[in-house]
Amino acid sequence: MMIERKKSLETIIVLMGALLVFYFIFELEVLLYIGLGLAVLSIISGWLTDRLAWLWLKLAEGIGYVMSRILLTLIFYIFLTPLALLSRLFTKDHLQLKGKQPSYFVERNQKYKAEDMENVW
Prior knowledge:
By secondary structure, this protein is mainly alpha-helical. Helix content is 69%, strand content 0%. 6% of the residues are buried. The mean pLDDT is 90.
């Protein structure tokens, strides 16, 4: 699958910027050479630039797939499970799931007015 030339160049520029930031953080000179190599490569070969951008975007897609599962799992077990347990401890049985009554049918003797039908949602 081919990526637009503009999108490929944007991806390479972002990679070069990330390498520059990591150079300033870790002070590894090899990162500057890799960034310079990416710049020269993107000028010389459009085909190779497209392939590198495609590879980088697929790697980012894979990381996003894994991280979304990890984050959703953490949110579920850290936030939602304790909330559900607290709700179960401190609330009444609104859905009548305990089975204490002979029927689940609840009879409501209510007289409806015209105002009840105006904003039903």
